[in-house]
Design a protein that fits this description.
Blueprint lengths: L1 E7 L4 H5 L3 H9 L1 E7 L2 H8 L9 H17 L1
Parallel strand pairs: 1-2
Length: 74
């Protein structure tokens, strides 16, 4: 049986917008999912990334627009 490694951040709204689509794909493909939660704040510290609240205002605004658009599609 194939395994899908699913790295996700419980703090990310994008993880919730995905809904159960990954589970549906896994069933269709006869695969199982290995859920691997990630602490994105640690990743940001190690890679030099910026948490959302420290990003430029225009980038934060775009993120809210993108979330609304994706939520509408979901």
């Amino acid at each position: 049986m194939s395994v899908i490694d699913y790295y996700f951040s419980p703090a990310s709204p994008y993880a919730y917008l995905a809904g159960d689509r990954l589970e549906q794909i896994a069933v269709r493909q006869g695969a199982r999912i290995a859920y691997k939660p990630v602490d994105v704040f640690t990743v940001f510290d190690v890679t030099g990334g910026s948490p959302v609240h420290r990003r430029h205002l225009s980038r934060q605004e775009y993120r809210f627009q993108d979330l609304a658009r994706r939520a509408g599609k979901a």
